[in-house]
């Protein structure tokens, strides 16, 4: 069943996916643009989260000064530490995600090129029509 896909509940041959004439074309091209934009967004979020930990620390200092001796101070410290861990985890995830998205764009580009090259002998023989 090689070269057969199920599209919209119907079986179609790969050659039929290229357009009305079945002659193929450039309709099934991959673009790394969306992957690279998503990677850039993940990197931007990583950068934006960078100063948040220090800002949280500064804000907490103000709270500590106004609540000295209160029992809630321990809970506030635990909450602050929890948020600091979450911020660092989110930054790490964003950094990792950016790299993974770039890897996907690269791998898809390499796959597209390999597929294109695999069809070159058939196209040279006139089999692409």
Question: What does this entry look like structurally?
Answer:
The chain is mainly α. Helix content is 66%, strand content 6%. It has 3 helices and 2 strands. Strands 1-2 form a two-stranded antiparallel ribbon. A hairpin with a 2-residue loop joins strand 1 (4-7) and strand 2. Helix 1 (33-49) runs antiparallel to helix 3 and helix 2 (52-66) packs antiparallel against helix 3 (72-124). 5% of the residues are buried.
Topology summary:
Elements: E1 4-7, E2 10-13, H1 33-49, H2 52-66, H3 72-124
Antiparallel strand pairs: 1-2
Short description:
The chain has 129 residues and is mostly helical. Helix content is 66%, strand content 6%.
Overview features:
mainly alpha; 6% strand; 129 residues; two-stranded antiparallel ribbon; disordered N terminus; rod-shaped
Number of E-state strands: 2
Strand content: 5-15%
Structural class: mainly alpha
* Average of per-residue pLDDT values: 79
Oligomer: single chain
Largest sheet: 2 strands, antiparallel
Task: Catalogue the unreliable spans.
Answer: 1-7, 18-22
Distance between the termini: 21 Å
Radius of gyration equals 27 Å
Q: What proportion of the residues is helical, as a percent range?
A: 55-70%
Cα shape: rod-shaped
**How large is the count of helical segments?**
3
- Strand sequence of the main sheet, in spatial order? 1-2
**N-to-C SSE series?**
EEHHH
């Amino acid at each position: 069943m090689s070269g057969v896909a199920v599209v919209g509940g119907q079986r179609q041959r790969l050659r039929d996916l290229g357009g009305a004439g079945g002659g193929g074309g450039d309709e099934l091209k991959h673009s790394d643009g969306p992957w690279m934009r998503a990677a850039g967004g993940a990197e931007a979020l990583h950068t934006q989260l960078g100063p948040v930990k220090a800002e949280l620390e500064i804000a907490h200092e103000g709270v500590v000064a106004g609540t000295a001796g209160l029992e809630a101070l321990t809970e506030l410290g635990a909450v602050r530490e929890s948020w600091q861990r979450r911020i660092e985890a989110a930054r790490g995830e964003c950094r990792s995600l950016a790299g993974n998205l770039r890897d996907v764009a690269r791998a898809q580009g390499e796959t597209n090129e390999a597929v294109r090259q695999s069809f070159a002998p058939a196209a040279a023989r006139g089999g692409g029509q």
